[in-house]
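Archive maintenance. Older records in this collection stored only the sequence; we are now back-filling the structure field for every entry so that each record is complete. The fields below show one back-filled record exactly as it appears after the update. Entries are processed alphabetically, and Prephenate dehydrogenase is next in the queue.

ARCHIVE ENTRY
Title: Prephenate dehydrogenase
Organism field: Kitasatospora nipponensis
Length field: 361
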Amino acid sequence: MRTAAVVGTGLIGTSAALALTGRGITVYLEDADPDAARTAAALGAGTVEEPEEPVDLAIVAVPPALVGKVLADCQRRGLARCYTDVASVKSGPRAEVAALGCDTVHYIGGHPMAGREQSGPLAARADLFEGRPWVLTPTPDTSTDTLNAALELVALCGAMPVVMDAAAHDRAVALVSHTPQLLSSLVAARLEHADETSVRLAGQGVRDVTRIAASDARMWLDILSANAGVVADILDELAADLSTTVAALRSLQDGDEAARQAGVAGIEAVMRRGNHGQARIPGKHGAPPTRYETVVVAIGDQPGELGRLFGEVARAGVNIEDVAIDHSAGQRVGLVQLSVAPSAVHELVVTLRARGWNVRD
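Back-filled structure field:
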């Protein structure tokens, strides 16, 4: 691949363009909003000039409802030799592409499983896709050259290709992406009118659950509209689980010992199911999940403290597998939670304390 076009310079399109330009690919940028394309170009994602000849691959980075229309326009103009998209739903766009009579030999659906709660070109990152799955959904008549072009795009962006049927993809993302987004929003919505004292008690748990509730509502309306039926089916199943859990909680307040024990069993069952489901989520680099221990260190809210802590951990010869920071309300201090291999915990705690760090038990 020597040349590419990105049509739609939002978060995903601009991030792909940045990754490609970083690998020496000449990228041409288009957007219905010229200012967005110029912003992406200013960030180093490519040029807003028109290509003089068809590019090797065009990436259609628009909402699911617009994929068919935009693809048809790009093919009419002869923009590229091969085409792909990055929409987060695949069945609807595929049906529209077929209905519009688009060339499906030189088109393959795609969906990089990466994103942020921010949107727009200014939120883009060249490393957004590194190590992330990138689903490809070829049609029966997708050519080998088109598949290879898409695979090259995935490799250039540092992602991992996963070939799936479009309908299977939509069921999967409804479970692991679309439903969690709605649940995060529903939990965060309970905070909208909560009293200030309650909100100030928020810790890392509620921050984790509600992080993606900050996502662009308009963007998610496009996504959910395109996969509404499948998401609704999963929510129906969740609603049944919620009803059972509510009944179990009510039983815990019952004066009857048998009812209370039934409630205990019900809550324990749902918690254990959650344990088992969470344990199935792949760990680092797609490997089987690994259990790490957490070392909690209190640090001051001042420049350089976090970097100094990471430097100390590195000098101790310990690899940080994950990190989270819990900020104390009303105080200029934070608790840094370092996830490390269990075998490294004792030596790391001893080393950090010897160097003056406040390691919490």
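Update note: Residues 293-360 form a domain with the Alpha-Beta Plaits fold (CATH 3.30.70.260). The mean pLDDT is 91.
Entry marked complete.
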